[in-house]
Amino acid sequence: MARHKEFDRDEALQKAMEVFWSRGYEAASIQDLVEHMGINRQSLYDTFGDKHALYLQALDRYREVEGRKLFELLKRSGSVKKALRQLFQGVVEGSFCDGERRGCFVGNAMSELAGRCKETAARTCSNLAVAEDALYRALLRGKREGEIKGGRDLRAVARFLYSSMQGLQLMAKATRDRKTLEDVVRVTLSVLD
Amino acid sequence: MARHKEFDRDEALQKAMEVFWSRGYEAASIQDLVEHMGINRQSLYDTFGDKHALYLQALDRYREVEGRKLFELLKRSGSVKKALRQLFQGVVEGSFCDGERRGCFVGNAMSELAGRCKETAARTCSNLAVAEDALYRALLRGKREGEIKGGRDLRAVARFLYSSMQGLQLMAKATRDRKTLEDVVRVTLSVLD
DNA sequence: CACATTCTGGAACAATTGTTCCAGAAATCG
DNA sequence: CGATTTCTGGAACAATTGTTCCAGAATGTG
Q1: How far apart are CA B24 and CA B126, in angstroms?
Q2: Predicted structure pTM score
Q3: Which end of chain B, N or C, is surrounded by fewer C-beta atoms within 10 Å?
Q4: Alpha helices in A98-117 (DSSP H)
Q5: pLDDT in tens, B73-87
Q6: CA distances, B192 to each of A186, B80, B89, B154, B182 (Å)
């Protein structure tokens, strides 16, 4: 009947995500998006709705991709502590590779929009819950395998770890001093001892 | 010779700070600022320069005020641990009073601008250094008074505390669940034991 | 081939952005 | 009072914002 889409929807969304990730919501213009996504202005509106809707879809995509990464990393057999160390150290390393210092898209969304956009608030809150759960399960496994000592409220530790992750990612935007970031990581992970 | 200023410069700057604090840089329009500051458009430009310059001055004001608060709280005689608990618990309580969930202005600035504005980056970095130092000094006192055990890298702990503070403030934007935030605080402060 | 559909580019939209210009009112000090 | 300076309000600026309309090209299916 009709013509097919010329562009790959997922690819375009990926590009949109990159723009929102590095610039945030307000500072990203439709013009920026059109250029980086490589699609037509009208196609953007037809496919994704308006700017706000596109932002939410980009945020969802990020959550899905990063959520999966976290899940994979944590459910791997082997030392849970080591996996967590890898997770946090990865953030430090990543911050030095990323010239734009984009940080965490979800954290950025919390900071910029969660306070005044309920759709964003719902998504960042859900992300917290999902990540917390993955961390909690990993900690449970660590306890089961004798790597993490009992007597601790592991749910609370999981929440702490997520919060620390966000804090670290924010710190990485302010400083490029590796020692500072590594200090933070070291003390953070010391709660597992 | 000439007419005096009709408005109080500090008061106007305070108002500007409130606008940038709750809306961020991009989302705050000159119109918003003019209305909330209660001064003339032209007076704004004459007194503070352009929007960007005004933002930096507002950020500086915030840093000064909050910095002083932190300093006062930490240098008080008495239990250092108690002061830190008060500090973190205060953030939790504050997040429930603040309907706008503004978080920490410095943290917001890191998230939104530090990556692409070097003046902002310098200021947030300096804030980190100042706060770290105040925390470090407090920890030293705690150690001297026998409240905090030795053998820990207190400089690292101070950095950790600042990062945790920022993380907590970000978490408070995502969730209104008191238990979650208190869990984070409890585990964070447990590194002092 | 021909119809139907949808993509594409560009123009156009009104609204808002940050900023400046201007004329007049207001206030200080000699 | 009068001279000088600065504040004040509003208009005006060009640029950019997000969004929509339109005409035509391109593609798939009958």
Answers
A1: 20
A2: 0.94
A3: N
A4: 105-109
A5: 999 999 999 999 999
A6: 14, 10, 16, 10, 16
